[in-house]
Amino acid sequence: MTVQGESRADTRDMYMVHTVFRREFGALPSLVRSVRTGDAERSQIIAHHIDVLSNFLDAHHRSEDIHLWPKLLDRGSQDVAPIVHLMEGQHEDIERLNEEASRAVGSWRTNPTQESQRALAHVLDSLFYRLDEHMSLEEWRILPLAEKYITATEWRDMASESGREIHQEYIPLVFGMTLYEANQDVIQKTLSELPPEVRSVLQVRGPQEFSSHSERVYGTSTPPRSGAVMRDLRHSPNRGMQ
């Protein structure tokens, strides 16, 4: 079945979120490797940054598990099932790597040795390349299906689910991260879907928190954008590590 009589999902905000993940997760391994052995203060800053991203990623994927995959399986034709099941399997792999990264962060935060740093950077390499592979396939195969089978209301419900799963103290920062490279049309669409009292706070506080957070993490309020991060990664000696 196709969605009839209702507005269909506008999936542009998914590209916006994927841009955040490519930029921030792509930069993580080099951020970790740049910390001097034994620098507990700097390792705490980067570890907190990883905590925020880990929660954001988990919330985003959990909302898809609840709201997107079951509807596509129920409404799509038989040829939809294999790609949806592949997406579900990739989520399981990414969740495993995200949990592994969280454990490695804990070890590095407690004892920032060369060994714990190397272990964390290695799993972050694997996590990013699995995540990038997943997002690319999702953009190619899943988003056109979502535009066919998912209503605009259901798509907004999925976004709301993701927002509920993000730790409350992280929400302004995550919002600022998301706006950093977003197209103005998509920004206005996203803001219009928020309650007025929330919109007015996040529209100001989000960019402010991202700016100050980026100063701590990157040493600048305007960190490299996703395109620059991806270009650097294409030439990284760690590219393709599992």
Structure explained in plain terms:
- The protein is mainly α.
- The chain has a single domain (12-222), classed as Up-down Bundle (Four Helix Bundle (Hemerythrin (Met), subunit A)).
- Helix content is 77%, strand content 0%.
- It has helices at 12-33, 40-67, 69-75, 81-110, 114-149, 152-165, 171-179, 184-192, 196-218, 226-234.
- The longest helix has 36 residues, at 114-149.
Instruction: Please report the total strand number as a whole number.
Output: 0
Determine the number of helices (DSSP H or I, runs of at least 4 residues). 10
Shape: globular
Structural class computed from helices and strand pairing: mainly alpha
Q: Tell me the strand percentage band.
A: under 5%
The radius of gyration is: 18 Å
Write a concise keyword list for the protein shown above.
Four Helix Bundle (Hemerythrin (Met), subunit A), 77% helix, single chain, mainly alpha, 0% strand, 242 residues
Write a compact overview of the structure shown:
With 242 residues, the chain is mostly helical. Helices cover 77% and strands 0% of the residues.
Secondary structure topology:
Elements lengths: L11 H22 L6 H28 L1 H7 L5 H30 L3 H36 L2 H14 L5 H9 L4 H9 L3 H23 L7 H9 L8
Helix pairs in contact: 1-2, 1-5, 1-10, 2-4, 2-6, 4-5, 7-9
